[in-house]
Amino acid sequence: MKRYSDQIISFLSMTAGAILAAFSIEEFLAPNNIFDGGVVGVSMILAHFIPLKLGIWIIIINIPFIVMAYKKMGKIFVVKVIYSLLLFSVMTSVFEPIANATDEILLAVTFGGVLLGAGVGLVLRGGGCLDGTEIVAVWLNKNLSISTGQVILGFNIVIYAIAGAVFDINQGMYSLLMYFITSHVIDVVEIGFESAKSVMIISDDGSALAERIFNEIGRTVTFLHGEGLVSSGKKDILYCVVTRAEIFDLKKIIADTPGSTFTTISDVSEIVGNHIKSK
């Protein structure tokens, strides 16, 4: 039952994301000649010169990437990609005749970038994809150990350079600015809004410290055991994940606990599994 409910949530997320992304493209970006990256960006440039709807261009250019995904990445992924792309394409045609949301270029860049990032992030969160370049990037990453981000950035630099040369250098720069806004919003939506930190504490005796963390913050702690190279004796290594808001309280607990400690705090980009409070 949970499997079916997860799939329903997945398709609802992709549906909302595809509609939001299409709205951003047609109401903010395309009317102001601000170009997205990847296949959508290429489609926007072609649609400007060849009288074919943007949604049709998106489907046509993505077909080779869908075939590639079917061969390399499995049927379920392809079904989700096709669903996302078809809905995205249809919704661009639905929104096209509606009056533009704004003609102010900075408003279009800002709000268009945020809405597009939210839409793409929801699609990715649901397991779908709106851009064939992401499929290529994932495949190259698996087979040639090339960073996914580097591949996508490389595609987009070429597209924005073409947009700047064909239309206006300012349009290329505005498009690049929109891309950075969109990328950040995608990360926030896909990964989550809660900013988490991983904390590693090395202590001579971690039992009392772990108990205070559990009782006062409500976070469980994983124990590791080690031995110092310079300082002699066994060491307790405590590992836990907390929110950014809990860092202050955690530092206070560490400072108030007797004994020698060494602490590192790092950003967590993604959490898979249950890290909620134990109480």
**So what's the overall shape?**
elongated
**Strand portion:** 5-15%
The arrangement of helices and strands along the chain is: HHHHHHHHEHEEHE
Q: Give the beta-strand count.
A: 4
Structural class: alpha+beta
How far apart are the termini? Answer: 27 Å
- What would you report as the Rg, rounded to the nearest angstrom? 24 Å
Q: Largest sheet at a glance?
A: 4 strands, antiparallel
Helix content: 55-70%
Low-confidence stretches: none
Going across the biggest sheet, name each strand in turn: 2-3-1-4
Descriptive report:
The chain is an alpha+beta fold and 279 residues long. The chain has helices spanning 2-29, 38-49, 54-73, 75-95, 105-125, 132-144, 148-166, 169-191, 207-216, 247-256; strands at 196-203, 222-227, 234-243, 261-268. Helix 7 runs antiparallel to helix 8 (169-191). It contains 10 helices and 4 strands; from the N terminus they run ααααααααβαββαβ. The chain has a 4-stranded antiparallel sheet with strand order 2-3-1-4, with no helix packed on it.
